[in-house]
Write a structure and sequence with these properties.
Blueprint lengths: L2 H4 L4 H16 L4 E7 L7 H21 L3 E7 L15 H5 L19 H15 L5 E4 H6 L4 H9 L1 H8 L5 H4 L5 E3 L14 E3 L4 E5 L6 E5 L5 E3 L1 H12 L3 E5 L3 H14 L5 E5 L2 E2 L16 H7 L2 H9 L6 E2 L5 H14 L10 H5 L14 H11 L4 H11 L9 H21 L7 H20 L7 H13 L7 H12 L7 H8 L1 H14 L1
Parallel strand pairs: 1-2, 1-9, 2-3, 9-10, 11-12
Antiparallel strand pairs: 4-8, 5-6, 6-7
Helix pairs in contact: 2-3, 7-10, 8-11, 10-11, 13-14, 16-18, 19-20, 19-23, 20-22
């Protein structure tokens, strides 16, 4: 363990310490991390968040202990399809296969051997796109190959105990029919949620009746002829694979408790778990895939780089956060600041960029100009092409180009798109108050005087920021934030913005004076 990790406060290292303690107690010399995936739909922004966060904990565990580990991305593709997703073709075909395991339903896209295989491939492509290191696992493969057979027989032997764990959580009607074992119908292929009338541990079978035909069946619990209900399935997986760590959303708190109890009933301690908060939409409501009230990963990556999404996911996972378009600029700037601070950081493990880049900052990382600054520049000049922004950037940083600043070049493209779709349509200027008008006149005159006296060859952002502060302090603004609100709302038509001295330096002193005078004339 390095010296820096001994005093780190970052949450991935706190999680890693919990995993290390578990391994020490169990006498294990390696760790298994797991993330679960329900493949009835395509990968989404929550999938990215869970795998990214788990990967950060795994990296922290490696640095903390030096022990080997694996990350298993487990697909629950034996689950029966409950409803037809809204974003797929051939819905009528899928409707005729409701209830069957996803891997036994034809692919509506016509590309793979099954719907489950299609979505599993999408998941793996998705995770590879972001550079995650993982091993893929299919529930169908694990059940059908016999890999889960010993654990399933153990479940059969503890059937009554598992039922008694779950029953208190169910309503009267469900309580009367519950069993953790779901036989696969030998004729229709449907995952059957039916009462189990008898279990036979000598033949490893369960007995049940088809409610539609009255036909009685005896089904083996091994070899993929049956699967387990969700909470028992999760617990069986922990037991069979000896999983050491898994995180899940707040909506699964009760499931974690029950699955942990079942895992203990089977004879093993459940893994270390972390419950992360769910995302909220722009109105503070929980995001729902069915409602479509959130922000998709494709939408995020239209307006900002993947590092900004990782930054958003890193920060305070156990705190509820709004996941909407207006959080993108702040997340992007937070990442830029983190990347800039990492090389000189005394405790690099406390820096999000260290986790985002697995301890090694790439050469392309970093930007001398923040994203919010670029957005405000794009807004003021109505930029619709990169060349428009690069003209100002080169005046601010002589010789700057996309080759020298590759990450800045990416931000330029994102800024144009974000300004086009969100900033420009929402711009709303207001007239200055009497106090604000006096302060703006003071700023314009000070810039003019400085242009002739103080600033030749020195239009540094910090010098200009100090000037902006000084003017705000010598006018009756209470609090001082009201002065900056004035600058953003009166001059830029936005509710928030960058350090204004930096904006003046980027936009240019002469143009900034003209911007102020134009706003005063307009007001």
């Amino acid at each position: 363990m390095s010296e820096n990790t001994q005093t780190t406060l970052s949450w991935p290292f706190r999680e890693a310490e919990r995993i290390a303690a578990r391994l020490k107690q169990k006498g294990k010399d390696h760790a298994l991390f797991e993330t679960g995936y329900g493949p009835s739909g395509l990968p989404h922004i929550g999938t990215f968040g869970e795998v990214a966060r788990t990967s950060w904990v795994r990296k922290a565990f490696t640095d903390l202990t030096g022990l080997p580990s694996r990350l298993l991305a487990f697909s629950d593709d034996m689950d029966g399809l409950r409803k037809v997703p809204g974003n797929v073709p051939n819905k009528d075909m899928l409707q005729s296969h409701l209830g069957k395991p996803l891997t036994r339903i034809p692919d509506p896209f016509g590309k793979f051997e099954s719907f489950g295989a299609h979505n599993n491939n999408m998941l793996q492509d998705f995770l590879h796109t972001f550079g995650f290191e993982f091993e893929f696992a299919s529930a169908t493969d694990y059940y059908s190959s016999g890999r889960f057979d010993d654990a399933l027989l153990h479940v059969l032997r503890h059937h009554e105990e598992i039922v008694n764990i779950i029953l208190p959580t169910l309503g009267p009607e469900r309580r009367a029919t519950y069993s953790p074992i779901l036989p696969i119908h030998p004729r229709t292929g449907v995952v059957m949620q039916v009462p189990i009338e008898q279990i036979d541990t000598s033949s490893n079978t369960v007995f049940w009746t088809d409610p539609d035909t009255g036909t009685k069946y005896e089904t083996e619990v091994t070899g993929g002829s049956a699967k387990l209900q969700w909470k028992a399935d999760w617990a069986m997986r922990w037991y069979a694979l000896d999983v050491d760590y898994e995180m899940s959303g707040k909506d699964l708190i009760d499931s974690v408790k029950l699955s942990s109890a079942i895992c203990r009933a089977l004879g093993k301690e459940p893994p270390v778990t972390l419950t992360y908060e769910l995302f909220l939409d722009d109105k503070g409501q929980k995001i729902s895939k069915s409602k479509g009230n959130g922000l998709s990963i494709e939408q995020w990556l239209t307006y900002a780089p993947k590092e900004s999404l990782a930054q958003f996911m890193y920060h305070a996972p156990q705190r509820a956060k709004r996941l909407f378009f207006d959080v993108i600029p702040r997340a992007t700037d937070d990442y830029i600041n983190a990347a800039a601070a990492l090389p000189a950081a005394e405790k690099p493990h406390d820096n999000p960029a260290w986790h985002i880049h697995a301890g090694k900052l790439p050469e392309r990382a970093g930007s001398p100009i923040g994203f919010t600054m670029l957005l405000n520049l794009a807004s003021v000049i109505n930029a619709d092409s990169p060349d428009m922004l690069w003209g100002f950037i080169r005046a601010y940083i002589p010789g700057a180009d996309a080759e020298t600043y590759p990450f800045l070049a990416e931000l330029v493209h994102y800024a144009i798109a974000y300004n086009r779709d969100f900033v420009a349509p929402a711009k709303q200027y207001r007239a200055p108050t009497g106090v604000e008008r006096g302060a703006l006149l003071d700023l314009a005159e000070s810039l003019k005087a400085g242009e002739q006296a103080q600033y030749p060859g020195d239009t540094a952002a910090e010098t200009l920021q100090n000037l902006v502060y000084a003017i705000g302090k010598r006018h009756p603004f209470a609090p001082l934030k009201a002065w900056f609100d004035c600058l953003y709302q009166v001059l830029l038509g936005t509710t928030e913005g960058p350090r204004f001295g930096g904006f003046i330096a980027l936009y240019g002193v002469e143009r900034s004076i003209a911007l102020i005078e134009g706003a005063l004339a307009r007001g």
